[in-house]
Amino acid sequence: NEQISILDIPFENTDMASFEGRLQQRINDHANTFVVTANPEIVMYAREHRLYKQLLTSADFVVADGIGIVLGAKLLKQPLAERITGYDLFTQLLSWGSDNLKSAYFVGAKTEVINQLKQVVHEKYPGLTIAGTHNGYFGDDRNIVADIERTHPDMVFVATGYPKQEEFIAKNRHAADALWMGLGGSFDVLTG
Ligand code: UDP
């Protein structure tokens, strides 16, 4: 599969439908997968933080979340097929996960948001099992990681904003052979 390098970050040149298909296949296969949905802020931050950049290049897929990346690619005469937003991927995977009786773990946002999220998922995606949840304001992550290990979800959604979410995933993805994805403010949007 084709990748396009933008400021040294290898972006997956794919469209939403085929990317979804690939992720679904990897979830079914219990492949350990780390997806970064990178917006221009993330790309700029990575320019100034070498370790964060290394961590992005260690991901299985970096996709272009944000029209700025798509426009940048076009200016560099290396057009990307499509913008792939974290939020669209999130809701699509919840819906597919519900239809296919998958399970998901949610880390991020404030306690009241995560409580609302549980309700929304329960109502809108009834086939999806909530393996567990934790708010995004924690110091020590050991309890969360142990819980993820114990519940072995199919998907782990981390919405604590960058760079924290990608750092959390890179450090802890060994805990479950799941799809791990950083999602910025997506829990707030879904419950908002
Ligand atoms: N957040 C969190 N823990 C933190 C800081 C932020 O869980 O220590 C949450 C916050 O409640 C919000 C999301 O992370 O739900 C940040 O959303 P934003 O759109 O700012 O994400 P970014 O664009 O910074 O990745």
Q: What can be said about this structure in brief?
A:
The chain is of the alpha/beta class. It is built from nine helices and eight strands. Helices cover 48% and strands 20% of the residues.
How does this model look, in words?
Pathway: Cell wall biogenesis; teichoic acid biosynthesis. GO terms for molecular function: N-acetylglucosaminyldiphosphoundecaprenol N-acetyl-beta-D-mannosaminyltransferase activity. Keywords: Cell wall biogenesis/degradation, Glycosyltransferase, Teichoic acid biosynthesis, Transferase. Catalyzes the conversion of GlcNAc-PP-undecaprenol into ManNAc-GlcNAc-PP-undecaprenol, the first committed lipid intermediate in the de novo synthesis of teichoic acid. This protein is an alpha/beta fold and 192 residues long. Helices cover 48% and strands 20% of the residues. It has a single domain, classed as Rossmann fold. The chain is built from 9 helices and 8 strands. Helix 2 packs across helix 3 (50-57).
